[in-house]
Amino acid sequence: MTTPRSNPFRSPFGRSGLTRRQLLARAGALGAAGVSLPAILAACGSDDDSGSAGSTPATSGGTTGGTTGGGGGGGSLFFENWPAYIDPTEDGLTGTVDRFMEATGIDMRYTEAYNDNVEYFAKIQPLLGRGEPIDPDIIAPTSWLANRLITLGWLEKLPIDQVANAANLRADLQNPSWDPTGEYSLPWQTGFAGIAYNSDVTGREITTVDDLFDPEFAGKVGALTEMRDTIGVIAMSLGIDISTLTTFEEAQPAFDKLQEAKDSGQIRRFHGNDYFDDLSNGNLAITIGWSGDVAAIARDNPAVKFVFPESGATAWADTMVVPKGAKNIDAAAQWMNFVYDPVQAAQITTWVGYVSPVAGVREEVEKLDADLANDPLVFPDDATLASTKGFAPLSEEVEAEYDAAFSGIIGA
After folding, report:
1. With 50 as the cut, is the pLDDT of residue 399 above it?
2. Quick check: 11 pLDDT over 70?
3. Based on the domain organization, do 170 and 29 belong to the same domain?
4. Is residue 60 domain-shared with residue 186, that is, in the same domain?
5. Which residues form the domain of 272?
């Protein structure tokens, strides 16, 4: 699922193929196959040399679509990111990577070989676990994995004093749970999981998570294979603070509720990125879904809607971090400073359609795309942001409990 479908979904934001958040669903697929991060982490510190440098994404050349600059004398930089997650140079417009190289003289290599958190961790673990550097100067783990990398001691502290525009970080993202001191990461893009539904099928507006369990929709309900989003949304509806979880028992009621819904036939299926057609054609009436994806679908089918449940939605963030031993930390700081300029960040937002971590972007986007600037799923208000929570970082042992329970429910 790292390549576009045969009938690619056309994003209103100017790109075709899979969106970034659709690709994240691959983590759920790996979980269903019995591959978990704790299982991989068990190999940390091993003397096994089976992971050679040639097996890492950096030394295998990344993706064929990598972008590199041509000189300039300003040093070099290598950023390995998720696919389709930055504005390219096309249609007469200069993309962010090329604008950065022109502005700084830094020769930048940008690749899209980061396809999945668990998979990527497995590739970098052999080197970082032995205290050896990988080639990328910046990588983009989702917040929970960024926290794990911090805990393992595999990241450099960011030279924040060289990133003046870090002052533009949204207030709600400062000193986050995955990086409490804010020393190791800056968010790249953010988004939410909540309730997606087809109003032509439901016949009414949806406002609460309880609607997922309404017998009226039996057999027409879906849920994500991304554990933190599905369990997170349900747990919040039960009054559980997902940002402070430390044990499996605290979240047990959410797992029980999901299990009951599956056993009763309330849930039609668990899905990753493949819920768009079912939601649009009415096979699904309601599901747990991602805000950015639904915002795009709604442009073509206004009956498909996304709602932040009254009990709150889960928040996710993909980050920029510098692996231990990176060679070009100063250049990485220049890149982060560049993309945290609201003018530059607006170019990225207009193309990718996710929620920017940079304050002041909306005003700049309005100059480029007034409709997008008024989209509440891309620019949620402060009250909406305050109703969202991120899933707490979990210990390796507790993570394994969550993964095992969730896999058992979804049929792994």
Report:
1. yes
2. no
3. yes
4. yes
5. 191-315+393-410
pLDDT in tens, 231-241: 999 999 999 99
Number of domains in the chain: 2
d(CA 155, CA 132): 12
Nearest to 287 by CA among 240, 225, 378: 225
For the record, the structure tokens of 295 come out as 């915002």
Within this chain, do residues 281 and 341 fall inside the same structural domain, yes or no?
A: no
> What does the pLDDT look like over 118-147, one tens digit per residue?
889 999 999 999 999 999 999 999 999 999
**What are the pLDDT digits (tens) for 159-168?**
999 999 999 9
CA distance 124 to 135: 10
Would the pTM of this model clear 0.85, i.e. be above it? no
What percent of the chain has a predicted confidence (pLDDT) above 70? 82
> Is 387 a member of any domain?
no
